[in-house]
Each structure stands twice: as structure tokens, then as C-alpha cells.
Amino acid sequence: MAPLVGWRRVIIPAGRYAGLDVDHVCLDFGGWPLYTRLCLPCHGARGDGHGPAAPYVWPAPRAFTRGEMKWRSAPVGQPASDDDVRATILLGAPGTAMPAFAALAPEQQDDVIAVVRAFAPSAVAAEDAAPPAIDLGEPPAPDPDRGAALWRTKGCPACHEDHESLKALVGSERNPS
After folding, report:
1. By Cβ atoms counted within 10 A, which residue in 57, 84, 117, 173 is the most buried?
2. Domain with CATH 1.10.760 in the chain
3. pLDDT at residue 127 in the model
4. What is the pLDDT of residues 21-63, one digit of tens each?
5. Residue 14 — left, alpha, or beta (φ > 0 → left; ψ -120 to 50 → alpha)?
6. CATH number 2.60.40 is the correct assignment for the domain at 25-128
7. What is the rounded distance in angstroms from the CA atom of residue 68 to the CA atom of residue 80?
8. For 49-58, 76-85, 98-107, 162-171, which range has the lowest pLDDT when averaged over its residues?
9. Confidence tier at 20 by pLDDT (50, 70, 90)
């Protein structure tokens, strides 16, 4: 039985990487030839996940141009680290079409990581920047009347029939009738 997806050599006519229409500086990286052989068939020449094999794999290949990686150890809102990208290259992505490339030497791994990172330079720059602070402002002043109204409208009396809990919260002089 023939495999569903077969690797084929990617032919780029008229010289070194001509006709790729790559608008990134990835061609200048030493890892570009390795990327074209191992990654380009699925992730594409632009790193957008639209390589020639992409229609035949599931799930769709990751688009490096967004700087988002599926498996990462970084906090939410922060880009994946180089070690996260390295782990995906070496181990693959079980349950997907992403194979493991465990035979790559450490220098080759670094070269491929540099190409992957070059597709989304703003995400790599964000790695060094501190996340923006969230200003919630001052909390509102306590409002016992609003609390009493919420007590009634949210159904609290159904479980708390005596109003002792409410009295403790808002004081006996504000006990709802």
C-alpha cells in the first residue's frame, strides 16, 4: 500500500532559491537549505503553513509568520523559547504529520531555529520585552444597597432563608425587607 503523503524534491528553477517569492531575509541564514529540505514541504517558503504538502496533512501545518507555536513552556502572551522550538524539531508533534528530526546535530538545530524565528521577527523581539502592565484602576467603594439588591436578585434567599448572613455583611440597619 502506497503512503498517503510522499516527500518529493522541491525544484526551484533559475538559480539559487529563485522563484520562491520570499519576502523575508530567511535566505541569508545558513539553515535555509536544511529548512527547504525538511520544513518547506509543509510550512512553505514563506513560513505561512502553505507548503506544497500542506493540503495533504492533518492538522494544517503551523504558520511561523504569526510567531505562535503549539507546544511551548512560556507563559501565555509570551513567544515560545528556542528550547521549545528545538523540542518540537527533535521530538516532532505526536498525533500530527510533524515528524521528529532527532538526527540533526545541535548546529543544524540552531540553524533551523534561526530560520523559523526569522519568519516572525516581531514575536522574537517581544520575547525580550516585558509584558504590558494591566491597570485595573481603583476598586469601587463598597455599596451595601447594591449588595442587598444583588442578594435578592441572584436568588441568595432561596438557600439562605434567614437573613443573618446578609445582616453580617451589610449591618442590621440595612437588612432588606
Report:
1. 117
2. 25-128
3. 52
4. 444 445 567 788 899 899 999 999 888 999 999 999 999 999 9
5. left
6. no
7. 7
8. 162-171
9. very low
Q: Is 46 within 8 Å of 22 (Cβ atoms)?
A: yes
- Which of 20, 35, 44, 18 has its CA nearest to residue 115? 35
> What residue type is assigned to position 6 of the chain?
G
The three cell numbers locating residue 111: 540553524
- In SS3 terms, 114-142 reads as HHHHHCCHHHHHHHHCCCCCCCCCCCCCC
Enter the C-alpha cell of residue 131: 509584558
For every residue of the chain, which 3-state class applies, written as one string? CCCCCCCCCCCCCCCCCCCCCCCCHHHHCCCHHHHHHHCHHHHCCCCCCCCCCHHHCCCCCCCHHHCCCCCCCCCCCCCCCHHHHHHHHHHCCCCCCCCCCCCCCHHHHHHHHHHHHHCCHHHHHHHHCCCCCCCCCCCCCCCHHHHHHHHHHCCHHHHCCCCHHHHHHHCHHHCCC
Instruction: Give residues with Cβ within 8 angstroms of 127, minimum separation 6.
Output: 74, 78, 79, 81
Length of the chain: 177
Q: In the block, which residue shows the cell 545541535? A: 106
